[in-house]
Write a structure and sequence with these properties.
This protein is α/β, with parallel strands linked by helices and about 240 residues long. It has 7 helices and 15 strands. The strands form 3 sheets. It has a 7-stranded mixed β-sheet with strand order 1-2-3-4-5-6-7, with helices on one face. Strands 8-9-10-11-14-15 form a 6-stranded mixed β-sheet. A two-stranded antiparallel sheet has the order 12-13. Helix 1 (about 55-65) links the parallel strand 4 and strand 5. The radius of gyration is 16 Å and the shape is globular. The two termini are about 25 Å apart.
Length: about 240
Amino acid sequence: MLAPADSVNEVSMNTHGKLNIEVFIEPSFQENGFLLWCEGEPDCWLVDPGLPSRQTEQFAAAVQKYKLTPKAIVVTHGHADHIGGIATLRSLLGDVPIVCPRGEENMLTNAEENLSAGLGLPVTAPDPEQLVSHGDALALGDLEWRVLDVSGHSPAGVAYYCEEAGVALVGDAVFAEGIGRYDFPHSSRERLLANIRENLLTLPEETLIYPGHGPPATITQLLEYNLTLRAELDQC
């Protein structure tokens, strides 16, 4: 949460084989929300909808534009800037099931835990319908996504990795030019760095990570150019 990112285009579209990823940027925190679907198939995921804003409207408009059926609202972690738009999206699109990391379900329903109360902008979301943990698998169309533990920035945050598409949605664990903050309640520098090292940097080098803020990067680029990450790993 609150990781700064340079202002970029609010909407961008990327394809990875049959997988489409449309990125919508929430303007207050420059948080990336993702709409995912497979070409020619109706089911879609809405990943990490940020605070209610233009981003929320863009999510809903894109679902209608592409004639998609929301299968799930998928959460990488429970900080407010990644869950704040859930209630609004469900009011627009119906009671789309929520997928949340096991151990962070209380962050959705508690403004103190998701850090929004301290900002004076308390937000909550409904209880999740499905909890996921490291090693679990989810399906979108005929693509399988593996759940990876990237906790440390938040108490139980996860990434979603699709080997066939060569992409991973990593939340705020790591960015193209930094790593997630570890000075929040329930954060842990040691756990974050261990999970980055063991569960992300071991992915194929060409894997493209989509972080919660800022541009995507390959694993190779993280290893070569993310000086903050390299320095933190050298000290750990």
